[in-house]
Design brief:
Blueprint: H1 22-28, H2 37-61, H3 68-79, H4 88-109, H5 113-129, H6 135-147, H7 151-175
């Protein structure tokens, strides 16, 4: 004789959510959406134009003005204008801090790859403490140590170039109607 009082199929056990590991979350994360062709063309042409302007200025004054960190800064300002790394505070102050640390390291230990690596680390620490995130500024410290440019020429050119990048980012964001507004904050 069956003494069971259930009349239907057994009730399924509730499924417990299993937390995802960091690796599983990373694999499920999605890359940012692809920009429209117009947006990509705008940011690439704006960045290229300002870099060509830096080359032109350098040709006129017979001084290399375009350095790799500035190309990276132009990419951030024109392709990712809303990121903290692209904001004027980080671009201008960051490059100045990078150059200052580079010159200090150069004076203390001379030009070597070891000194450049330490200068890069110190620059990153100072950028973090000063709340001026800008990764290309770390490369500015490295360039300063390894290339040993004359400070009286290099620092004003670096400052002017960083300001020019910010101003072209500002102008570029106002030219294209649906572009993100740059800067997200000035200071």
């Amino acid at each position: 004789m069956n003494t069971s009082t259930t009349t239907g199929p057994p009730h399924p056990r509730p499924v417990e959510a299993v937390p995802l590991s960091p690796r599983a979350r990373l694999l499920r994360a999605k890359a940012p959406a692809r920009p429209t062709a117009a947006a990509a063309l705008h940011s690439v042409s704006a960045a290229t134009t300002v870099l060509l302007a830096l080359v032109g200025i350098g040709a006129v004054i017979h001084e290399p003005v375009l350095i790799p960190p500035l190309a990276a800064s132009a990419a951030l300002v024109h392709s990712a204008p809303t990121l903290p790394l692209a904001q004027p505070r980080g671009v201008v102050i960051g490059h100045m801090l990078g150059a200052a640390v580079g010159y200090a390291a150069l004076a203390a230990a001379g030009s070597s790859a070891w000194t450049a690596a330490v200068a890069a680390g110190v620059t990153l620490a100072l950028l973090t403490v000063a709340r001026t995130p800008h990764s290309p500024a770390v490369a500015t410290a490295v360039v300063t140590v390894l290339q040993t440019p004359a400070p009286a020429r290099f620092v004003p050119l670096l400052f002017g170039s960083a300001v020019l990048l910010v101003l072209t980012g500002y102008a570029g964001s106002r030219i294209r109607r649906d572009a993100p507004v740059y800067p997200a904050y000035w200071w």
